[in-house]
Amino acid sequence: MNVYTPTSITSNCFADSFLLLNRRSNSNIYYCFYNTKRKVKTLNQDFISHNFKIQAVEKNAPQLDVEKLEGSTTKSGFNSFSWPSPEDEIPFWKREFPSWDINLDGPVDIKKDSDLIHIVHVTAEMAPIAKVGGLGDVVTGLARACLSRGHKVNVFLPFYECINKQQIKNLELVNTYDSYYDGSWVSTNAYQGVVSGIPVIFVEPSNHFFKGQCVYGGSYNELEAYLFFSRACLEWMQVTGTQPDIIHVHEWQTGALPLLYWDMYHHLSLRIPKIALTIHNMEHYGECSKEQLSKCGLDGSIYATEEKAVDDRTIGHNPERISLLKGGIVYSNAVVTVSPTYLKETLCSGWLAGTLIRHREKYRGILNGIDTGMWNPATDIFLPAKFDALNIEEKKTCKHFVQRGLGLASGGHQMGSHAPDKVPLVVCITRLVPQKGLHLITHAIKYVKEISGQMVVLGRASDSRVEREFKDLADLHNNGSSIRILLTYSEELSHMLYAAADMVLVPSIYEPCGLAQLIGMRYGAVPVVRKTGGLADTVFDMDDQSQPEMANGFVFEGIDEASLNWALDRAFRYYCGKPNEWSAIVQKVMHIDSSWNNTAGKYIDLYNSIRVRE
Ligand code: ADP
């Protein structure tokens, strides 16, 4: 019996819990939570799997007994967590989870690049602390991949009031400086801290910008706040003498930075940086008036030309409008979008096509990756049981866990039973916006039920009409045994759903890259997708005989319900009628390497192609 005294207990970010760290092992951290308020003890299964069992933990206990279990195996057991139920006072995805240092799970054998550079991302989102969609995942994943190749990387992020500061390590104020906005200088704090191993500079103006409970949709003028942020990042570099090789901006929110850089800061003291812009979604183009653009200190009227930043559709109108995204395309040294097929689509349609064609030589399509440290079913702390491509048995436990927690009928999964489960579970995890194929999602809910499957939708709508429509659907279906519609954002639940799912549905009308299908595959969920953008680059139909070695999912082309039905029917037929082939697909999709380690090299090549060499 090992006895741990309270010195080995450190208080953690959860106010009424303790985190026990076994510091004797360099490679592992074992944890146990004892929530003194609700008198609930949650044993993390890692504890069991490493042959330890907590006997008792009392607040202020003089000592803590930890007993080594004789003969226990490294395989997790069903008793290592408590099964959830829809009646739980706290839903299972809101239970307390240990803080997760993904650096521990990061790749260790990445070869360092020989020619190292300094890259700075300027972004409105960063996972996991300020994530709304894929942008946040991409910034964190790409930054971590470049760090692991030896490069110096920083991220600049607005210090949104809603950021949970406990997720930031070593947070400290670096300096206070003034940045220009609308005729005056705004006192601004720059903090630094570490998020998922990445050094981040948080920009906090002393005005009302970035206040509120969400990343987007605060009561301030968003466009003006991001114009301020774009300039404040350059101002910080100017006052601190920081000259990265590359400033990498993302989306319309930071589209004004290249204008500010080339027309202002490059003439001050910033000489070295070159600018890369990644467009994650062409739908949002940062519509702005000349007057608004002038508020960041540029003369807005000089950008209202076809070659610079005017929104081509407004030429000759009164007033004409400016697009920050177009300005960003024109003024950046390199422009990237997030998949080769989306690149082709954007050159063929949409009002920005003309600008992109004019700047074709600097425009590239680089497929997004996923962070395989963050998205790893073998180590994911949110999962009740871990699994990987070589040992997928515990995926069934995850499915059963989610089914029980949501009150869905569970297909006869018994403790220790390996019997095939006859009811496929389809998940759809998405922002509920027209781009994502709302009519196809609502149709799938009905159709999956009709063909005796189960479906869980996890989504958040920003539009009140869409919210209402899905609320009505939730009221209609959520008391039954096969459909759950959860209108919320939950990182934890998304991990559990990917792990539980047999299929992940992505029926987008257009999709620049799409991460849901990549994450789904990593967790053994077979994708059912519409053939568009990055979905067309990453999912290949099982019944397409022309490239059987690539086949990894079910693809449909039309935007009509019958096309979706056809794909779902085929997926269900495989699942129910060809269990061996299904298992083979699941293993195949889990083996696909969609990691940033695989694709970050393309960004490094791009950075190298534009940077200033001494
Ligand atoms: P987009 O960037 O257009 O939203 P992507 O597929 O590129 O779409 O990325 C979406 C990311 O956001 C994925 O990581 C997905 O799991 C996550 N996500 C979307 N909606 C939710 C939600 N309601 N709760 C948790 N995660 C979500």
From TrEMBL:
Substrates-to-products reaction catalysed: [(1->4)-alpha-D-glucosyl](n) + ADP-alpha-D-glucose = [(1->4)-alpha-D-glucosyl](n+1) + ADP + H(+)
Protein name from the UniProt record: Starch synthase, chloroplastic/amyloplastic
Coiled coil ranges: none
GO molecular function annotation: alpha-1,4-glucan glucosyltransferase (ADP-glucose donor) activity; alpha-1,4-glucan glucosyltransferase (UDP-glucose donor) activity
Domain Glycosyl transferase family: 419-572
Any one Gene Ontology cellular component term annotated for this protein: chloroplast
EC number, as in UniProt: 2.4.1.-
Subcellular location: Plastid, Chloroplast; Plastid, Amyloplast
Homology family: Belongs to the glycosyltransferase 1 family. Bacterial/plant glycogen synthase subfamily.
Keyword hit for Oxidoreductase: no
Pathway terms, separated by semicolons: Glycan biosynthesis; starch biosynthesis
Residue ranges constituting the Starch synthase catalytic domain according to the UniProt record: 118-346
Keywords associated with the record: Amyloplast, Chloroplast, Glycosyltransferase, Plastid, Starch biosynthesis, Transferase, Transit peptide
Pfam family, any one: Glyco_transf_5
BP GO annotations: starch biosynthetic process
Major localization listed first in the record, in broad terms: plastid
